[in-house]
Amino acid sequence: MQDASHSPLDAWLARLEAAHPVDIDLSLERVAEVARRMGLLDARVAGRVITVAGTNGKGSTVAMLEALARTHGLTTATYTSPHLVRYNERVRLDGQEADDEVLVAGFEAVEVARRGGDPVSLTYFEAGTLGALHAIAARGPDLAILEVGLGGRLDAVNILDADVAVVTTIAQDHAAFLGDDLEGIGREKAGIMRPGRPAVLGSTALPQSVRATATTLGAPVHALGEGFQRRAVEPGWAWEGHDAEGLVRRLEALPDPGLPLDNAATALQALALAGVALDEAACRQGLTSVMLPGRMQWRGQWCLDVGHNPHAAGYLAARLAERPCQGRTIALLGMLGDKDADGVIAALAPVIDAWVPVSLDGDRARSADALAGHLEAQGQAVWHRAASPGQGADWLEASLEPEDRVLVCGSFFTVGAVLAAWASRAQTATDDRSSEGAT
């Protein structure tokens, strides 16, 4: 059996990581030129394209869009980032992660086009986006759902025109690239909108610049609390919005998907504007079946969430407060150095009894000791410090009481590392059982 650590896909990913001098280089000229060479701009990659931008809530909105579209019988393709454990998570075709061969074929097509004239340098994310679009175009699904990686206007996915543009929330994050002015951030996120095509605004607290951009473009606005809304009913919740013809549609007694209901309502509105005739039974099925690893993902005593800014941490704190436990709540926290650790800690502090800060690897890493300093400055109890998320999880497993619970949060890298450690342990146990059976 081929060693997965030396697979063709891993070789391509290592090559892409080393190919461009910087990780993030916000521009569309280079990626659009390679897309033109690949023929990705000559014809539609899917029947409809929904592009989702925002600071928080993108992943859950995309997941619900996919689940709802599939229960309505549509073929789908999604592109998201980053991944938690496997790169394959970023591209899903008809609800399944793309296999290695599909991804490698995309990277090969990107490389041929990149060199098919004056060579063009691409970042890891740009090459990945083009490879994903190659896979989507080859499939030609009814609906492609694209998640913006960073910003919007200059993000690589914005080389395609969205039939429906979604902006979920706006908060401060990625300040080194987007700045800390919310109006400016809003303009960047709203850059995915197109003239005359609907824009869905999934928060009641967006900067004025988002709506102003839509107005300037002549993009019809469907805003939460105005063009569409949700309300509590018994049982569940209800949605009201408009379809692509402008007719009012209502859905009653919808189930809680375990993800933010604002994002669920936003997904329903975007899907309706993409021309899908929403069926109440199909919507219930889609909301019941949606799964999104790393977002309020419970595994026994453990809750894993990739929230890494104060806005996301506030949502986490509210959800944990709704679900009290008899024991202690311990946070395993790992954060990158460019994130607002003080804001995240302050938002979570009311529901956390003790903390286990962990170190992350990489150029943007923050050490457990550095995080502990932020925690102690706010009067928080630091229970233990660990050199990695996996080591922190191992220590906690040996220290927890049955009534305790753990929140793993602060970064995709933190949650991904814990999930990977658990998966590795499970695989080792399986291999050991197989070996015992063979003897």
TrEMBL record:
Entry keyword annotation includes Ribosomal protein: no
Gene3D superfamilies with a match to the protein in the record: Mur ligase, C-terminal domain (3.90.190.20), Mur-like, catalytic domain (3.40.1190.10)
Domain Mur ligase central: 52-194
Ranges for domain Mur ligase C-terminal: 294-412
GO cellular component: cytoplasm
UniProt EC number: 6.3.2.12, 6.3.2.17
Pathway involvement of the protein, from the record: Cofactor biosynthesis; tetrahydrofolylpolyglutamate biosynthesis; Cofactor biosynthesis; tetrahydrofolate biosynthesis; 7,8-dihydrofolate from 2-amino-4-hydroxy-6-hydroxymethyl-7,8-dihydropteridine diphosphate and 4-aminobenzoate: step 2/2
SUPFAM superfamilies per the UniProt record, alphabetical: MurD-like peptide ligases, catalytic domain, MurD-like peptide ligases, peptide-binding domain
Keywords: ATP-binding, Folate biosynthesis, Ligase, Magnesium, Metal-binding, Nucleotide-binding
Pfam families: Mur_ligase_C, Mur_ligase_M
Catalyzed chemical reaction(s): 7,8-dihydropteroate + L-glutamate + ATP = 7,8-dihydrofolate + ADP + phosphate + H(+); (6S)-5,6,7,8-tetrahydrofolyl-(gamma-L-Glu)(n) + L-glutamate + ATP = (6S)-5,6,7,8-tetrahydrofolyl-(gamma-L-Glu)(n+1) + ADP + phosphate + H(+); (6R)-5,10-methylenetetrahydrofolyl-(gamma-L-Glu)(n) + L-glutamate + ATP = (6R)-5,10-methylenetetrahydrofolyl-(gamma-L-Glu)(n+1) + ADP + phosphate + H(+); 10-formyltetrahydrofolyl-(gamma-L-Glu)(n) + L-glutamate + ATP = 10-formyltetrahydrofolyl-(gamma-L-Glu)(n+1) + ADP + phosphate + H(+)
GO molecular function: ATP binding; dihydrofolate synthase activity; metal ion binding; tetrahydrofolylpolyglutamate synthase activity
Name under which the protein is recorded: Dihydrofolate synthase/folylpolyglutamate synthase
